[in-house]
Structures are given as C-alpha cells and as structure tokens.
Amino acid sequence: MSSLLLTNVRPWGDEPVDLHIADGAIAAMTPTGTEDRTDGVERIDGRGLLALPGFVNAHAHVDKSWWGQPWISYGGEPTTQGRIAHERAERAKYGIPSVDGAIAVLGEFLRHGTTATRTHVDVDLGVGLRGIEFVREAAAALDDAVDVEIVAFPQDGVLRRPGVLDLLDRAAAEGASSIGGLDPASIDRDPVGQLDALFGIAERRGVGIDLHLHDGGELGAFQYELIIERTRATGLAGKVNVSHGFALGELPADRQARLVEQLGAAGVSWTTVAPVRSAPLPWRAMRAAGVAIGLGTDGIRDLWSPYGDGDLLRIALGFARLHGLRTDEELEYAVRLATVEGRRFVHRDGDPFGPGARADVVLLDAQNVPDALVRAPRRELVIAGGRIVARGGELAD
User: Fold this and answer.
1) Are strands 379-384 and 387-391 parallel, antiparallel or unpaired?
2) In the predicted model, what is the mean pLDDT of residues 22-51?
3) Which of 124, 220, 358, 362 lies at a 20 to 30 A Cα distance from 165?
4) Any residues with CB less than 8 A from the CB of 198 and at least 6 apart, and which?
5) Where are the beta strands (DSSP E) in 126-227?
C-alpha cells in the first residue's frame, strides 16, 4: 500500500490541515499537528500553501498540437472552413496527430495542475481512429496521471463526408465516452440530418454528445432548440453538451432567458474557453437554471491558432475578465469552474478533498483563491492520483 502525508496545507484557503493519501485516493483530512508520525509514510511539508483540487480541462484538443516542435507560422483563411482546410492540408507535414505530440500537451497540463481532461480527438476519413489510439497511448505513457476522457470529433463535418458516421459509431463502440458534432447548419448545411444521426448513435451506444457550435445569432439559437428537443426525446439529459455556443451571449435578453431555462430543464451543459471578443455568457442565469458550465483550453499551439500554454487557471482568469467578475465570491466561482464544477465533464462527483476521491492536489503560493486567480502563480506541487508529478512548476523526474 502506497501512502503519502501532505502536511500543513490550506484547502480553498481554509485552516491548515494534513491530507492523508493512500493508494492514489484521499484517505482522510485532519487538523495540522494532530497526527502522530507513522513509519513507512512519505511526508511532505506543504508549508501552509493554498491547496486546490486538480484542474479539469473540459474542452481540449490534445491530438492537434505542435508543442515542442519548431515554431509554425499561422496560415490559411481565418474562418471555420478555412481553418479546417488548412489543417487537413498541412497536418501530415508536422506529424499531427502523434503519440509524442499528445504526450507533450498532456505534460503541459500536468505542469500547470490539470489532472483530468475531456479531449476532442479528430475522427475523419484521413486519420480514421488513429488519433484516438495515439491519445490513449500518450495517456498510458504518463501512467494515466492525466485522467483522459475522449470525444470522437468529426472536425471535417459529418454528413458531407460519407463514412464519418460509421467512424463515429465505431469510436463509440470501442470506448469513446462521447461523440462530437460540428455546426450542423453551416458545415453540413443539414442541422436536422446531422443531429438526428448523432443522437441516434448516442442513444444506441449509450454515449454522450458534445457539439461544437460556432454559429451566431438566431442560426445558433435555432440549433440549440433542435438539441433541446432531441435531448428530451431521447432521454439523454446530463449527457449532451454544447461547446463554445457563441450565439447564447448574443441574443436579446428575453430570448436568451427562455433558452437558458429550456437548456436547464433538458439537462444540456455548456463548455467555454472564454475567448476574447466573444459575447459574455449569462452565467448567473445558467447557474440558477442548472446549466452546468465547464472551462477548457481548446487547441494549444496548433494549426488553428498559435496561442495557448495549457494553464487552465489562466483560462479561468480570462473567464473572470470577460464577464467582469470582481468580488471574492465571483473570483472563487471562476476557479471552481476550472476544478469542482468541471468534474461532471469527466464523470466525477463528490468532494474532491473527501475520503475516496482520487488524490489530485495542486499547491500554490497564494493568500487565498482570488489571489491565486488574478496572479496565476506557478504550481509549487502537483499530485495526480496520489503521485507527485510536478514540483516548482516543472514536471517531476
């Protein structure tokens, strides 16, 4: 039995405690100074540092990155279709996807304290299901320090590419937790057809659906309504997610309010990367209506964008800035989106510091949670599944 005692840490900035870890899970939490020394237990002095649960990246693309390679200049047309075409034309030149590329991204996640992710992995006529195999190999190479949940993602479209539906069905049959979709109206130009096909696979295979929706305004709102209708009809409440969903923040207040209530009642969740220049989400109304929100990094240094460093705490800071958060309660909410609230997107529940929870702990030198958010200091220690994976902002040997 492997045991670790992490002493003198402050979960969520509260009073100092000792965290007892056994076999990769939280065994107990006791006030600091009350535990007798036990032979055979590794002890680590937490030095009174702030302790947060491991971050959960609820929207990633770990198969796409050129992290670790020489700099690749941005090219192609700056539209969704243009980015797809550019990526398809250039990816093989840079060895995308690959096991090494996915390992590099997952390593950056760990270094910054992310210990679980829902990652979209491209499934198309060019790569088939190889990208999923590569991501699984990468996770295994890191001893599953990052808990990886896979969404089989049809980046190049669904109906417009005959054979993609079969690939999605195979991915679902072979263990993908969810299947994805992409702008049913503007990419496939058949929103009813794409959604009916995806919901059919999800219902038959017992998997979730996670749809990229970039379309704005009423076109986006129309697709939300179609998703709500199908979620209710198939009984997939709690298993359907909208990624990005830029239109929601653009709609008139009354239209927006009705949709938020309907989304909550249907059990549809939302993930955002809080991009600059996007319309703020009605997060207060979403929280009140029970619409779960998760944060993600999206792609990191890929053929879509040169930006990104794998730090989900900076994404939470971006969410706070985009939405004008100021109070301590609001700032802490942004951090909870990146930690506790993100757990549902990787099929976890309960208190992340409670007995039996996977021991994912991040220590930071910060006064409290708001201070950690606005400064995004380096991660002094990262524990994933009960193992030390990073110290002083760098991966452990």
Assistant:
1) antiparallel
2) 88
3) 220
4) 158, 168, 179, 181, 209, 211
5) 147-153, 178-182, 208-213
R_g over Cα of the chain: 21
- Phi, psi angles (nearest 5°) of residue 152: -75, 115
What pLDDT does residue 397 have?
82
Is it the case that residue 198 has pLDDT exceeding 50? yes
Q: What angle do CA 139, 141, 146 make, to 5 degrees?
A: 35
What is the pLDDT confidence band of residue 36, given thresholds at 50, 70 and 90? low
DSSP 204: H
SS3 track for 75-87: CCCCCHHHHHHHH
Closest listed residue to residue 130, CA positions, set 104, 167, 157: 167
CA nearest neighbour of 338 among 146, 55, 11, 12: 55
Determine how β-strand 55-60 pairs with β-strand 387-391: unpaired
Q: Which of 1-15, 102-116, 189-203, 287-301 bottoms out in mean pLDDT, i.e. has the lowest?
A: 1-15
Residue 146, burial from CB neighbour count under 10 angstroms (0-12, 13-18, 19+): buried
Q: Which pLDDT belongs to residue 251?
A: 98
- Over 60: is that where the pLDDT of 1 sits? no
DSSP lists the bridge partners of residue 190 as none
Q: Edge-to-edge strands of the sheet including 394-395?
A: 25-31, 17-22, 3-11, 42-53, 361-364, 379-384, 387-391, 394-395
User: 230 is written with which tokens?
Assistant: 């199908």
Q: Which helix (H) or strand (E) holds 362?
A: strand 361-364
